[in-house]
Amino acid sequence: MRLAGRRVLVTGAASGIGLAIARLFQREGAGVAMLDRDEAALTKARVDGAPALVCDVADERQVRAAVAQGVSALGGLDGVVNSAGIDLMRPFEHMTAEEWARVMAVDLTGPMLVCHAALPALKQAGRGTIVNIASGAALRPLEQRTAYCAAKAGLVMFGKTLAVDLAADAPSYVASTSTVGALVFIMDSSMILSCFA
Ligand SMILES: NC(=O)c1ccc[n+]([C@@H]2O[C@H](COP(=O)([O-])OP(=O)(O)OC[C@H]3O[C@@H](n4cnc5c(N)ncnc54)[C@H](O)[C@@H]3O)[C@@H](O)[C@H]2O)c1
Known about the structure:
This protein has a six-stranded parallel β-sheet, with helices on both faces. It is an alpha/beta fold. It has helices at residues 16-27, 39-45, 60-74, 97-125, 146-165, 184-187, 189-196; strands at 7-11, 31-36, 52-54, 79-82, 129-133, 173-177. Helix 2 (39-45) links the parallel strand 2 (31-36) and strand 3 (52-54). The chain has a single domain, classed as Rossmann fold (3-Layer(aba) Sandwich), CATH 3.40.50. 48% of the residues lie in helices and 14% in strands. The longest helix is centred in the middle third of the chain and has 29 residues, at 97-125. It contains seven helices and six strands; from the N terminus they run βαβαβαβαβαβαα. The chain is globular and about 50 Å long. The structure holds nicotinamide-adenine-dinucleotide. Nicotinamide-adenine-dinucleotide binds at residues 11-12, 14-18, 36-38, 41, 55-58, 83-86, 106, 110, 133, 135, 181-183.
């Protein structure tokens, strides 16, 4: 029980990496609020007792309401994992401005909105932790992925800059996974656990 007593909000928690992290944290004794825009998948994935927050991370009003609900249900907040994300494979000349804007809104603005809404509670906890799930695509260009690569590169720099901004304050730890690849967290859970323990 390496996370007993910790309270963590995980976005994109209805499937994939977010769900694996939510389950791992619960097994380790943490209280976990599970946030996702896919209500049906969230209901199915929800682990017993976990607050389920239906929310589009790109929508500021929804994010503020969902984070407040999560903080209230958990009785505070010690950490956030931003895993919600979307991919887009599109040759650049066929990509629309709307498609570009949506990837930016979900993959880059979304984590910023969640961090912004969660920050007062993280500061109150005294030792908040933020982990942003980026991608190797942040550092290595992939074909037909201009929007995704740009958004994930932005997310890595957002995390680093936020860490500088908050260095003298809480949260204590801000990380953006990039080179290691997000999937490593499923195989090597000690990495993400060490951020929160
Ligand atoms: N799977 C990989 O190989 C891989 C590699 C590198 C990085 N990543 C990153 O890891 C994260 C999780 O990927 P995954 O493979 O688990 O994907 P996934 O599609 O299985 O899970 C993503 C979850 O995010 C949710 N989501 C999408 N848009 C949302 C929104 N606007 N608001 C709230 N929730 C939303 C989806 O409903 C889904 O449950 C993503 O940010 C992805 O870019 C994945």
